[in-house]
Amino acid sequence: MTDGSKILSDMNDRSREVFRRVVEGYLESGDPVGSRTLTRSMTEKLSAATIRNVMQDLEFLGLLDSPHVSAGRIPTQLGLRMFVDSLLEVGSLADEDRERIDATTGSNDQDVASLLDHVGAALSGITRGASLVLAPKVEAPIRHIEFVSLSPDRALVVLVLANGQVENRIFTPPPGQTPSSMREAANFLNALAEGKTLTELRRTITAEIGKRRQEIDVLAQDLVQSGLAVWENPGETSERLIVRGRANLIEEEGIDLERIRSLFDDLERKRDIAEFLELAETGEGVRIFIGSENKLFSLSGSSLVVSPYMNADRKIIGAVGVIGPTRLNYGRIVPIVDYTAQLVGRLMSDRGK
């Protein structure tokens, strides 16, 4: 049993109802909820003084906070977490929201990047938050690799994938490369590459170079390693984070604009793109991160609702999510994110991703 669940189980019905109504009122309005407001909605007829006493007890437990003297209470991060885990009532996906999400997949000739961009835009528009869509990595098996010298300090590496896709990257080769050493490096790679993805190939060549150091020219070793490293760089087309709806988040009242700008700067530089996917890898379904529970969003005081999506082999290949203030309408947004993730997963499976 988590700390929050134990606290909740130890509370009496009166305290539990006061707590729930304070959180629901805050999530709906964004404003502190006062005792006089609760006297009109409580199941049991209670005086404002009695409700204030209950609120003080909840504040002592760390579940509520009072931002200003006698200005009502708001939930703390612990309080929001306890509410989300134990008291949140998740609604059904509204037909209007379902139709808007489905409309993004109307064209079968969209490439994956365009499709996910449209999904992100729809998710942002529906939730009035900022949407995140992590596109799948390109991990098709390799058919052929070639190095082409362009100048003494520039070379082109061409990667032909088994699915017919061709990737080209320009990079700076180690000094002293010759056409002969480039052919040697390409021959070495092609002897090992067939049927392997780029990730698998990198692991293989690291081991093989150690075993066959005498057979491979030192310059060719450097060329192999520097040429393949081009595809390791974060932010390349093989791994794309789509961020839509920045304006929605910045327009929210009560959010530190500088912190929000810092958040989006981090996202656009993709510093934590791998961690973003890892957030969803601990299990299927939607996960909710509130404030400092996730370091990527802790500075902005935001919440993240995220869900992985999977391919036909039930392997997690990406994630979709929504960022917003901690007073998100979680009950509405959870089914939206869940449905979107399932839809994207089906689309990726149909496309063989």
From TrEMBL:
The keyword Magnesium does not apply. The keyword Ligase does not apply. Gene3D superfamilies: 3.30.450.40, Heat-inducible transcription repressor hrca homolog, domain 3 (3.30.390.60), Winged helix-like DNA-binding domain superfamily/Winged helix DNA-binding domain (1.10.10.10). Residues 115-334 form the Heat-inducible transcription repressor HrcA C-terminal domain. One of its GO terms (molecular function) is DNA binding. GO terms for biological process: negative regulation of DNA-templated transcription. InterPro entries: GAF-like_dom_sf, HrcA, HrcA_C, WH-like_DNA-bd_sf, WH_DNA-bd_sf, WHTH_transcript_rep_HrcA_IDD. It comes from the Bacteria. Keywords: Repressor, Stress response, Transcription, Transcription regulation. Negative regulator of class I heat shock genes (grpE-dnaK-dnaJ and groELS operons). Prevents heat-shock induction of these operons. Belongs to the HrcA family. This is Heat-inducible transcription repressor HrcA. It comes from Paragemmobacter aquarius.
